[in-house]
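INFO  loader      accepted 1 record
INFO  loader      residues=164
INFO  predictor   begin
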Amino acid sequence: MKKTIGICVIAFFVSVTLLRAQDESPILKPDIFNALPEVTDSTSGKINIYQDKRIEQLVKNKTEGNPYTQKYATAQGFRVQIFSSNEQRTSKAQAYKIEELVKAKYPELVTYVIYQSPFWKVRVGDFETNSAAQELRNFLREEFPEFKEETYVVRDQIRIPDPF
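INFO  predictor   done
INFO  writer      dumping tokens
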């Protein structure tokens, strides 16, 4: 009985110590512009960065405006599929080539290369309604006539901006 109580007391103190160690972890810096110039201890030197403030603003704009770096939630919605192939040797390369083609002409469109065995697919957009996806489908069929036969609206998990 005394051994059991002793083990419980030791386990309690170990768990409290471990929890305290987690609370004292250093806070991560939000970006490299704030992390580099700060001195970490008294024996270290200080780094001075002389740069145009526009560089920092460009980096922030790039990450804030990029749909791939934003926080998002998922929901059931619609996307426009413009390519699907199961040719083992060429379909992956074709899918990425088509994605680059769409991004080069319309960089604001969010594109996805998806592998669902055995198919490689390219899908465009995140739409909550079928009618909005149909509008993009019609637009893409006019802009890329080579994909006209394969372009149609599909139901998919879409990304929506996270409200929090």
